[in-house]
Amino acid sequence: xxxxxxxxxxxxxxxxxxxxxxxxxxxxxxxxxxxxxxxxxxxxxxxxxxxxxxxxxxxxxxxxxxxxxxxxxxxxxxxxxxxxxxxxxxxxxxxxxxxxxxxxxxxxxxxxxxxxxxxxxxxxxxxxxx
Length: 130
What we know:
Blueprint: E1 5-9, H1 14-26, E2 32-36, H2 42-45, H3 51-56, E3 59-62, E4 67-69, H4 71-80, H5 93-108, H6 110-118
Parallel strand pairs: 1-2
Antiparallel strand pairs: 1-3, 3-4
């Protein structure tokens, strides 16, 4: 099966990696590819992706090359694994604005939020395979 979406995620964020693990476990048809923005060769393999921006907001790349961001990536990823119904309301017109603001707050504060939830603020390199 061909990749439908590439997710560019923060591999040092325990919560981010936890979500990627959930997605990977659900991705039986391998429609997703997971790319850690902190991988040593990331900039070489993906020169079109600004690492600082990808660290600020989740980036994704569709099969046609279109870049998508934030909760659009989240919804596209969960949709690719047949669970789009879980995130669909986040893209509804009235809810979308509030959800996007909430996401940006989360993204800015994800290390502190991660520490509260998991006890770990950062990992040197979290693994998707744990």
